[in-house]
# Entry
Amino acid sequence: MEQTEPLIMQIYCRLEVAVTDPEVIGKLAGQQLREAEIDWSRREEDLEEAAHQLESDLTQALSCVIEHDRMIEHLPGVESRGGLVFTAFGKPDDRFRPGFTDFL
# Structure
Protein backbone atom coordinates (compact mmCIF):
# COMPACT_ATOMS: atom_id res chain seq x y z
CA MET A 1 0.00 0.00 0.00
CA GLU A 2 1.43 3.37 -1.04
CA GLN A 3 1.25 6.41 1.25
CA THR A 4 -0.54 9.25 -0.61
CA GLU A 5 -0.83 11.86 2.15
CA PRO A 6 2.21 12.93 4.17
CA LEU A 7 2.25 11.93 7.82
CA ILE A 8 2.62 15.08 9.90
CA MET A 9 4.84 14.59 12.94
CA GLN A 10 6.38 16.84 15.59
CA ILE A 11 10.00 16.67 16.77
CA TYR A 12 10.62 18.02 20.27
CA CYS A 13 14.19 18.91 21.04
CA ARG A 14 16.08 20.61 23.84
CA LEU A 15 19.68 21.53 23.20
CA GLU A 16 21.91 23.10 25.83
CA VAL A 17 24.59 25.40 24.45
CA ALA A 18 27.32 27.56 25.95
CA VAL A 19 27.57 30.90 24.16
CA THR A 20 31.21 31.93 24.30
CA ASP A 21 30.87 35.08 22.18
CA PRO A 22 27.45 36.76 22.49
CA GLU A 23 28.56 39.68 20.33
CA VAL A 24 29.19 37.40 17.34
CA ILE A 25 25.69 35.93 17.67
CA GLY A 26 24.16 39.40 17.82
CA LYS A 27 26.10 40.59 14.78
CA LEU A 28 25.13 37.48 12.79
CA ALA A 29 21.45 37.97 13.65
CA GLY A 30 21.66 41.65 12.69
CA GLN A 31 23.40 40.81 9.42
CA GLN A 32 20.77 38.22 8.52
CA LEU A 33 18.01 40.72 9.32
CA ARG A 34 19.65 43.34 7.10
CA GLU A 35 19.94 40.80 4.25
CA ALA A 36 16.32 39.64 4.56
CA GLU A 37 13.90 41.01 2.02
CA ILE A 38 11.54 42.78 4.41
CA ASP A 39 9.28 45.67 3.43
CA TRP A 40 10.05 48.09 6.26
CA SER A 41 7.55 50.69 5.03
CA ARG A 42 4.76 48.80 6.84
CA ARG A 43 6.64 48.48 10.14
CA GLU A 44 6.67 50.82 13.11
CA GLU A 45 10.45 50.57 13.41
CA ASP A 46 13.07 50.97 10.73
CA LEU A 47 15.68 48.41 9.76
CA GLU A 48 18.51 49.85 11.85
CA GLU A 49 16.33 50.14 14.96
CA ALA A 50 15.17 46.54 14.58
CA ALA A 51 18.72 45.31 13.92
CA HIS A 52 20.01 47.13 17.02
CA GLN A 53 17.27 45.61 19.20
CA LEU A 54 18.01 42.14 17.83
CA GLU A 55 21.77 42.51 18.27
CA SER A 56 21.36 43.55 21.91
CA ASP A 57 19.03 40.68 22.90
CA LEU A 58 21.03 37.44 23.03
CA THR A 59 18.05 35.10 23.47
CA GLN A 60 16.22 36.61 20.51
CA ALA A 61 19.40 36.75 18.39
CA LEU A 62 20.26 33.11 19.06
CA SER A 63 16.70 32.03 18.26
CA CYS A 64 16.89 33.88 14.95
CA VAL A 65 20.14 32.34 13.74
CA ILE A 66 19.35 28.71 14.60
CA GLU A 67 18.48 26.76 11.46
CA HIS A 68 16.25 24.06 12.91
CA ASP A 69 15.34 22.56 9.53
CA ARG A 70 19.00 21.64 8.91
CA MET A 71 18.81 18.73 11.36
CA ILE A 72 16.65 16.81 8.88
CA GLU A 73 18.03 18.10 5.57
CA HIS A 74 19.96 14.88 4.92
CA LEU A 75 16.93 12.61 5.48
CA PRO A 76 15.27 11.34 2.30
CA GLY A 77 11.49 11.51 2.29
CA VAL A 78 11.31 14.09 5.11
CA GLU A 79 10.44 17.73 4.48
CA SER A 80 10.55 20.57 7.01
CA ARG A 81 7.26 22.42 7.29
CA GLY A 82 8.40 25.03 9.79
CA GLY A 83 8.97 25.08 13.48
CA LEU A 84 9.44 27.07 16.62
CA VAL A 85 12.77 27.91 18.17
CA PHE A 86 13.05 29.70 21.48
CA THR A 87 15.92 30.20 23.87
CA ALA A 88 16.13 30.87 27.58
CA PHE A 89 18.86 31.41 30.14
CA GLY A 90 19.51 29.02 32.98
CA LYS A 91 18.52 25.49 33.84
CA PRO A 92 16.04 23.52 31.72
CA ASP A 93 12.34 23.84 32.41
CA ASP A 94 10.99 20.71 34.11
CA ARG A 95 8.38 20.35 31.35
CA PHE A 96 11.17 19.47 28.92
CA ARG A 97 12.99 16.77 30.84
CA PRO A 98 13.17 13.35 29.16
CA GLY A 99 10.12 11.19 29.78
CA PHE A 100 7.94 14.05 31.03
CA THR A 101 4.90 14.39 28.76
CA ASP A 102 2.47 16.66 30.64
CA PHE A 103 3.28 19.56 28.31
CA LEU A 104 1.81 17.74 25.29
